[in-house]
Amino acid sequence: MNEKFYSLPVEKQQKIINAGFRVFSQNSYKKSPMNEIADCAGISKSLLFHYFHNKRELYLFLWDKACKITMEYLTEYGCYEPTDLFEMMERGMRAKIRMMTKYRSMTAFVIKAFYEKDPEVNSAIHDSYQKYFEIKAQDALARVDPSDFVEGFDLNMMYREMYLASEGYLWEIIQFDGELDVQKLEKDFEDMLKFWKKIYLKKGE
Amino acid sequence: MNEKFYSLPVEKQQKIINAGFRVFSQNSYKKSPMNEIADCAGISKSLLFHYFHNKRELYLFLWDKACKITMEYLTEYGCYEPTDLFEMMERGMRAKIRMMTKYRSMTAFVIKAFYEKDPEVNSAIHDSYQKYFEIKAQDALARVDPSDFVEGFDLNMMYREMYLASEGYLWEIIQFDGELDVQKLEKDFEDMLKFWKKIYLKKGE
DNA sequence: AATATAATTGACCGATACGGACAACAGCAT
DNA sequence: ATGCTGTTGTCCGTATCGGTCAATTATATT
């Protein structure tokens, strides 16, 4: 990409980036025209091509940007400090909720991008994803002490279950397009967590 | 549309209809090519145009079909029999959950269609929607006895809140693409309802 | 088997949309 | 005037779109 992009006023950078997030999050990669993104950012298509030499480059740039912002949030909320599994999930969720209220279309973009199947970008996305995040879950899962949990249940199953429920919950938020009540959301999720603890942990806890 | 469509073997009708639901639920109206729908249904584009004279006609036909199926479910689950508000919501939800597990892409289509803004179909959809469903809520709301509820709260607010939460919950289900556990879903929603009753109804109940 | 009839398709059309290239323009400092 | 930088309008080759239609295949009738 053209490094001059970075010397643009930050506000303008943001406008272009957000336009990208918006359009790419609403259509598939192939059906997201550069034209539309440019319009949405209030610049000409030519200028957009001036900063990003082609569509793929812009897409991958946006993905990377989203990953970095996500990482910032996750570290800021202490998601990489070693704790137990539930604590980790709570911190992760809190970070994500905050992030979504601030960058809603970005979050939608990330999800769409993750499931994007167009061969032009597909593999690049997945490689990058693994490098960025996949370590975390393994890490926290490894620290788990099985004796804390109720007898005869599958740890991975539980994690999967919890993970899916959280993701679904986040979807709900993304789709809703009105003002978001952060405190309510966080309380809701805390309730969810309490519920899980109650089911999965041994009574002694 | 071409009435001969109905004399097709039902299985083939279904295949075409489902293809429509799928494609229209994944892209916007404008970016859903007839080509793709035909391929997805295993027929040629020409044949698709033989049965539905143009794209708009197919889209509106699908919308109508979806509405009718929805109505069937709602009546089957007793959603139109007069009861109290909570009972109505529960029946409605139960019907919708069942419906979604059977016709997932249709449900996704309905939601997308409802928010579709393309002027070519937008108004037709909204007119139809009002005719079909909007009566129901008013109806049940009118039967509500305000004295049953806790002091000083806005009935419409509560309904809106409950409605949004339900819709969000359904979104979560639609987005998830694996086998659905109907019983779990229904239990979850029952819990939600219990929770609402606890907050909104007077203790005497 | 020959014929009529219905189902289904491939090839095609005009219009538009697309990604991308590039020369030109405007503003501004020298 | 002369660069330089940011920005745009215009153009191009190609692909795609909605939609048509003649041609082909399958089915029913005699």
Which helices and strands appear, and what pairs or packs with what?
2 copies of one chain form a homodimer.
Chain A: H1 10-26, H2 34-41, H3 45-51, H4 55-76, H5 85-102, H6 104-115, H7 122-132, H8 134-142, H9 155-175, H10 182-200
The structure holds a DNA duplex (30 and 30 nucleotides).
What keywords describe this structure?
Tetracycline Repressor, domain 2, 0% strand, homodimer, 205 residues, mainly alpha, DNA-binding
Task: Outline the structure in words.
The structure is a homodimer. Chain A has about 200 residues and is mostly helical. The first copy, chain A, has a single domain (about 5-200), classed as Tetracycline Repressor, domain 2. In chain A, about 70% of the residues lie in helices and about 0% in strands. Chain A has helices at about 10-25, 35-40, 45-50, 55-75, 85-100, 105-115, 120-130, 135-140, 155-175, 180-200. The longest helix of chain A has 22 residues, at about 55-75. The interface of A and B includes residues 26 and 169 of A.
